[in-house]
């Protein structure tokens, strides 16, 4: 009976196991191997040892792409978290039409991708776009945005803020798990709104922040579509995200070995950051099963 | 602006806390409404441009309401390029991927949730860990594999992997299966049903709401996917809507014509929009489940 169950279990898990081996773990190993070869789709790859990595670390474009991805992550992820939490708190209040508001804020995430990128490209148009038009109304001469080396990256960060609906909903779910009694008790003890936020909401939502931060960082390091469609990595590579740099090497120059090396550096960075978030979490996340247990 | 009915509230109460609450709620409402307005601006700007006459696009100050609305922009945009072909390609891929995802994920999730076997939990942990893996790491070898198989420029690289599970959706479904009472399966086992019949006849019907959640997320993800179709589909006649769109802005016939571009973008987001409006609660459910349990 037990053996029968185990056999069944493996049969059921088989699609997932095969998928993992064929499409994840296998390619990972091959990718590591490829990163030590020179391979251009023709013939067999030639083993060149650490040559790709040496070339990579000597390439100023690689460092530039690393910088672009780093700036984007450092600015857009915290901005997204703060904005999403503020929105979630707002939309956790009792008010008329709250469900409609939630839907409106979530809507942009549903249509993410090329359409959004094209729409924002048009919005950022320096002469006829609505953004500079609105800025002009309050007396600001808007920059040339996507065609400006200085403003292209900020434009992409602004675009990313439009898509915080998912993060907001995750926060909202977390907020609804906080027992109302805690707030009432705090109110009786004379805690103000800021105190309640600082000592109840923030600690009790910290595990959600942890989750959102992790997803946010991993996502930010892989940004591709918006940059590819809105700026193509330009102007003068000022929005050359790591993923765009990788794409160029793999599919424009067909340097498959080199691209694999880029991918592994990217992987290493994600690993280190994930580890950092995990290791630091005891210092800023708060776990109390009793408090989190009751959900409405 | 009074938000809540006050007629039945006691007068004393109304004067003190109730009155204050109404005021703060009104303030919240105003902030939320203003925020929503800001979020809606891009949509409105898109619609406004999509319905404009070409010569009205470059007006300063811009004209928000396009009078008369140019419905012909849509027919122009959608016939200037073989949009029907792109839509058909997207439709085929999305349908197959959603089908493959539902089948493979619910199947595997049942194994992870209910059937005991040595190493099961370890496999599940590895599966979850793959969620954090940047897809770039597997990109090149996967591309080479499909290239070797001769699958480039076919839908196969986009469709076939969906029949081999998806870590995120397996997680979602497993969490749900764990909440289904075991008694149902035990009764079925006594009646002589094997695991496969239990999965098909008991678990699947009971998990319809979660399956719907998986279906809508998988639909949206696949329909919006840009990178996969971009690298695997090279022929114009094979392109999906998402990839075709990205080529519009560079094409000499459509690129300079903002009203046609925005009409195409509007048309392209209609399926996702319709799905969202029809299945809102499934979106929220999926997010709430992953958010809290994470």
Description:
The complex is a heterodimer of chains A (296) and B (294). Chain A contains 15 helices and two strands. Chain A is mainly α. Chain A has a single domain, classed as MetI-like (MetI-like fold, Orthogonal Bundle). In chain A, strands 1-2 form a two-stranded antiparallel ribbon. In chain A, α3 runs antiparallel to α11. The longest helix of chain A is centred in the N-terminal third of the chain and has 33 residues, at 2-34. Chain A is globular and about 75 Å long. Chain B is mainly alpha-helical. Chain B folds into two domains: 11-50; 74-293, MetI-like fold (Orthogonal Bundle), CATH 1.10.3720.10. Chain B contains 14 helices and no strands. Chain B has helices at 11-50, 72-80, 83-114, 120-129, 136-148, 156-159, 167-177, 182-190, 195-206, 208-224, 227-232, 241-248, 258-278, 280-293. In chain B, α3 crosses α10 (208-224) and α10 (208-224) crosses α14 (280-293). Classes of the chains: A mainly alpha (296), B mainly alpha (294). Chains A and B meet through α1, α4, α5, α8 and α11 of A and α1, α3, α4, α5 and α9 of B.
Total count of strands of chain A:
2
Q: Could you tell me the radius of gyration of chain A in angstroms?
A: 24 Å
Q: Tell me the major beta sheet of chain B.
A: none
Q: Specify the helix fraction band of chain B.
A: over 70%
Set out the fold topology:
The complex is a heterodimer of chains A (296) and B (294).
Chain A lengths: L1 H33 L2 E2 L7 E2 L3 H8 L1 H31 L7 H13 L3 H10 L6 H8 L14 H10 L3 H11 L4 H9 L4 H12 L1 H15 L4 H6 L11 H11 L3 H29 L4 H5 L3
Antiparallel strand pairs in A: 1-2
Helix pairs in contact in A: 1-14, 3-7, 3-8, 3-11, 4-8, 11-14, 13-14
Chain B lengths: L10 H40 L21 H9 L2 H32 L5 H10 L6 H13 L7 H4 L7 H11 L4 H9 L4 H12 L1 H17 L2 H6 L8 H8 L9 H21 L1 H14 L1
Helix pairs in contact in B: 1-13, 2-13, 3-7, 3-10, 10-14, 12-13
Short description:
Chain A is mainly α.
What are the key terms here?
heterodimer; A: 296 residues; mainly alpha; B: MetI-like fold; 2 domains; 14 helices
């Amino acid at each position: 009976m037990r053996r029968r169950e185990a056999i069944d279990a493996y049969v059921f898990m088989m699609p997932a196991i095969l998928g993992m081996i064929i499409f994840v773990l296998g390619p990972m190993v091959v990718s590591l191997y490829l990163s030590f070869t020179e391979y251009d789709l023709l013939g067999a790859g030639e083993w060149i040892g650490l040559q790709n990595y040496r070339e990579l670390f000597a390439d100023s474009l690689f460092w530039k792409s690393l910088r672009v991805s780093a700036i984007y992550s450092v600015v857009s992820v915290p901005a997204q978290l703060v904005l999403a939490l503020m929105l979630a708190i707002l939309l956790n209040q009792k008010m008329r039409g709250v469900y409609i508001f939630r839907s409106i804020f979530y809507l942009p995430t549903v249509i993410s991708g090329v359409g959004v990128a094209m729409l924002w490209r048009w919005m950022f148009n320096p002469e006829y776009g609505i953004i500079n038009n609105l800025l002009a109304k309050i007396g600001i001469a808007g920059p040339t945005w996507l065609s400006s080396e200085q403003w292209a990256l900020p434009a992409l960060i602004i675009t990313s803020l439009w898509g915080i609906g998912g993060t907001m909903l995750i926060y909202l779910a977390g907020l609804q798990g906080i027992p109302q009694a805690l707030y009432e008790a705090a109110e009786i003890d004379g805690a103000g709104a800021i105190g309640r936020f600082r000592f109840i909401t923030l600690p009790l939502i910290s595990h959600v922040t942890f989750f959102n931060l992790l997803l946010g960082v991993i996502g930010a390091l892989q940004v591709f579509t918006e940059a590819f469609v809105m700026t193509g990595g330009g102007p003068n590579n000022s929005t050359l995200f790591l993923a765009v740099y990788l794409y160029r090497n793999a599919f424009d120059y067909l340097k498959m070995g080199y691209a694999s090396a880029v991918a592994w550096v990217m992987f290493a960075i994600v690993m280190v950051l994930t580890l950092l978030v995990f290791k630091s979490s005891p210092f800023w996340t708060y776990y109390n099963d009793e408090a989190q247990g009751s959900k409405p | 602006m009074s938000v809540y009915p006050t007629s039945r509230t006691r007068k004393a109460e109304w004067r003190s806390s109730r009155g204050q609450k109404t005021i703060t709620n009104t303030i919240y409402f105003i902030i939320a409404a203003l925020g929503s307005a800001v979020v809606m601006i891009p949509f409105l700007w898109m619609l406004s441009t999509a319905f404009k006459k070409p010569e009205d696009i470059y007006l300063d100050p811009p004209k928000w309401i396009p009078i008369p609305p140019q419905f012909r922009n849509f027919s122009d945009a959608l016939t200037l390029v073989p949009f029907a072909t792109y839509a058909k390609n997207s439709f085929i891929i999305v349908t197959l991927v959603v089908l493959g995802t539902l089948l493979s994920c619910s199947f595997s999730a049942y194994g992870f949730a209910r059937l005991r076997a040595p190493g099961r939990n370890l496999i599940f942990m590895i599966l979850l860990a793959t969620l954090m893996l940047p897809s770039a790491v597997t990109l090149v070898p996967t591309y080479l594999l499909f290239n070797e198989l001769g699958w480039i420029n076919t839908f196969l690289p986009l469709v076939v992997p969906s029949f081999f599970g998806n870590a995120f959706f397996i997680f979602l479904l497993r969490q749900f299966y764990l909440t289904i009472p075991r008694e149902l399966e035990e009764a079925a086992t006594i009646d002589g049903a094997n695991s496969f019949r239990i999965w098909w006849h008991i678990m699947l019907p009971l998990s319809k709401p979660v399956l719907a959640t998986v279906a809508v997320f998988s639909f949206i993800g696949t329909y919006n996917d840009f990178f996969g179709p971009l690298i695997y589909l090279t022929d114009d006649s094979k392109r999906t809507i998402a990839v075709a769109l990205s080529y519009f802005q560079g094409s000499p016939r459509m690129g300079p014509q903002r009203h046609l571009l925005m009409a195409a973008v509007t048309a392209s987001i209609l399926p996702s929009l319709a799905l969202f409006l029809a299945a809102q609660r499934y979106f929220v459910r999926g997010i709430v489940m992953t958010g809290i349990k994470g």
